[in-house]
Amino acid sequence: MRIGLYPGTFDPVTLGHLDIIERAAALVDRLVIGVAINRDKGPLFSLDERVGMLEAECAGLTRRLGTEILVHPFENLLIHCAQDVQANVIVRGLRAVADFEYEFQMVGMNRSLNAQIETVFLMADARRQAIASKLVKEIARLDGDVSKFVTPLVEDKLLKKLGKR
């Protein structure tokens, strides 16, 4: 069985994330969305909120694609999370060259920790390359329209969280 792990903080999940999830799900039998607990980043949404948004957004994909998609919170090393969920591939999305430099270092470190787990990079769809959760939150905070970057469910939760609804 091919098991993929797509990790991130997903604070909040964007259309860019969902694009990578959908495309990654076509490559594996089971896709685990690893929701990182990163206290250093100070997420806007709680872990439970981020997990809930991802589960809601991925439910339709599971039905449509037939690939099992699970959401799994983690706070350990990425490679340990991959081992915990028995992933044989880590899926990473790339938006720009700057992403690649960081990801290249991570692949080297992960391979030295466990050479059996491959990393696969998926380029963001050209329409989604500029989307970053950090920027989506900033646009929403400053009363901008985020509907082009997130689903209606996520937009509603984001605006409520920021006291805009």
What are the key terms here?
6 helices; alpha/beta; 165 residues; 5 strands
What report would you give on this structure?
The chain has helices at 15-25, 47-65, 78-84, 97-113, 133-141, 152-161, and strands at 3-8, 30-36, 68-74, 89-94, 118-123. The radius of gyration is 15 Å and the shape is globular. Helix 1 packs across helix 2 (47-65). It is built from six helices and five strands; from the N terminus they run βαβαβαβαβαα. Strands 3-2-1-4-5 form a five-stranded parallel β-sheet, with helices on both faces. Helix 1 (15-25) links the parallel strand 1 (3-8) and strand 2 (30-36). The chain is of the alpha/beta class and 165 residues long.
| SSE order | EHEHEHEHEHH
> Could you say which structural class the secondary elements and strand pairing correspond to?
alpha/beta
Q: N- to C-terminal separation?
A: 44 Å
Multimeric state: single chain
Mean pLDDT: 93
Report the sheet with the most strands, covering strand number, pairing sense and barrel closure: 5 strands, parallel
Order of strands across the biggest sheet? Answer: 3-2-1-4-5
What amount of the residues lies in strands? 15-25%
Helix content, binned percent: 40-55%
What integer value in Å does the Rg equal? 15 Å
Count of helix runs: 6
- Low-confidence runs (pLDDT<50, min 5 residues)? none
